[in-house]
Amino acid sequence: MPRRRPAAPPRADEAAEPPRIIGGSLRGRRLAHLPGGPTRPMKDRVREALFDLLGTAVRDALALDLFAGTGALGFEALSRGAARAVFTERHFPTADAIRRSARDLGVEERCEVRPGDVLTWAKRMPDLPGSAPWVAFISPPWSMFQDRRDELMAVVTAVLATAPARSVVVVEGDGAFDPAALPDAAAWEHRPVLPAVLHFHGRLVS
Fold first, then answer.
1. Taking Cα atoms as reference points, which of 139, 125, 206 lies closest to residue 169?
2. Quick one: which of 80, 86, 72 has its CA closest to 33?
3. What domains, with CATH codes, occur in the chain?
4. 3-state secondary structure 28-74
């Protein structure tokens, strides 16, 4: 049996380089970020595949970027036609960088940054603006799928229970996460985009 080749290590400059928006009206623009900070930005190829799969589901939606980090998912959604974006990030300096990106990109009026711990949403979902369908991105540190899985799945449950009709929820995990742990497990679609696996709940619109 042939031996599996080890995954290529990330390039040193990939982590240091500011994330860029891949498609839409803001294509090519860079985001503020904190080099060496606590975020794990989704790789460009994974983000591109994610938005290709979402297609027109993003248009006029409310984008929820949970565990936002640089805010790349929320800003990508705005670039591709989302009406508004809400970012949640518990690391206050990183939340300030998201606000800076919103100002630099000229989309500040369409953005709301909520510093704090997303895991508290399992106990009490916050009020969210408007009644449009959501595209909710749940992209936590992958260690949470092992260390805090029950709390994380409780957040997914709360989002699914509260989301308006025609919403799409996306969970990004690694290959070690067992999707059978997801609430309403049979209703999810699973798409591997190495090194990630994308899990979708809700109808994807091409």
1. 139
2. 72
3. 47-201 (3.40.50.150)
4. CCECCCCCCCCCCCCCHHHHHHHHHHHEHHHCCCEEEEECCCCCHHH
How does pLDDT run across 99-124, given as a tens digit for each residue? 999 999 999 999 999 999 999 999 99
Is the bond leading into 133 cis (omega within 30 degrees of zero)?
Answer: no
Q: Which residue, 119, 176, 196, is CA-closest to 152?
A: 119
Q: Which two tokens stand for residue 115?
A: 């510093």
Task: State pTM to two decimals.
Answer: 0.89
HSE-up (13 A, CA, CB side) for residue 123? 4
The string of pLDDT tens digits covering residues 26-53 is 999 999 987 766 666 688 899 999 999 9
Classify 116 in phi/psi space as left (phi over 0), alpha (psi -120 to 50) or beta. Answer: left
Report which residue type is found at 53.
L
